[in-house]
């Protein structure tokens, strides 16, 4: 079996930790490092939650956790603890982990590891893209050395989850998102539209997951309970949303993504009213004109996902039984 090398860049809250569970527990995956970035909760909590998840579920040598940027490139810090709980983990308030973070900055760790594993390392970024933008500025050659970058961010012609037009990660640091998307990385984006349409787990499927009696399953339901309550009370969504974990699941098993397309993508950074909005040129034959300064496609955009297969992946990961995927 070919080992898949991953680095996850995360603003660790409930579903971010679910994503980490996929990377820590799925056969054939080697999670080389976790870098943390302020987003859902402040950086120290993001780092604590990542260390906690590693301590509980990593087998063998613990995965190193590198704290990164504690605020966006140009803007004030924006947090989403109102969704995920004050601790980011469903108001679980777990005891402090014994593991300690690494001294190296997350952006430096990204640069070092991409150069250490040229053509092998895949990055899953499911927080604001601040760390990855800084890493690119430190060493622009990493765009040609990383195997692939999977980004949870933006939304394709769909409502946002923080404003009517924007998804949280791109809204929190639109300048970083624009830098990364224009840099030339081999990129696939998984937007908030995919979250709502293909990874909202409720009803009988959620009941089934709640019947799994393992430490991973108990942890999953505990850390996602605040988001579940928020979705039901304010989001109009009857279930747990999985924006981050479905992105990692697609990275691990790309056949989960059943339809995608390549578009020219850019992020609105100047209009506060539409800050973080993702403009995708989906026109089949853009006519030349002096008003649009776009370009050739710069990102693969996920359009459809096999929901039932994603639920089976969740079931397999939480139960530890992977037979149907071998």
TrEMBL record:
<dbReference type="InterPro" id="IPR001910">
    <property type="entry name" value="Inosine/uridine_hydrolase_dom"/>
</dbReference>
<dbReference type="GO" id="GO:0005829">
    <property type="term" value="C:cytosol"/>
</dbReference>
<dbReference type="InterPro" id="IPR036452">
    <property type="entry name" value="Ribo_hydro-like"/>
</dbReference>
<dbReference type="Pfam" id="PF01156">
    <property type="entry name" value="IU_nuc_hydro"/>
</dbReference>
<dbReference type="GO" id="GO:0008477">
    <property type="term" value="F:purine nucleosidase activity"/>
</dbReference>
<protein>
    <recommendedName>
        <fullName>Inosine/uridine-preferring nucleoside hydrolase domain-containing protein</fullName>
    </recommendedName>
</protein>
<keyword id="KW-0378">Hydrolase</keyword>
<keyword id="KW-0326">Glycosidase</keyword>
<feature type="domain" description="Inosine/uridine-preferring nucleoside hydrolase">
    <location>
        <begin position="6"/>
        <end position="311"/>
    </location>
</feature>
<dbReference type="InterPro" id="IPR023186">
    <property type="entry name" value="IUNH"/>
</dbReference>
<dbReference type="GO" id="GO:0006152">
    <property type="term" value="P:purine nucleoside catabolic process"/>
</dbReference>
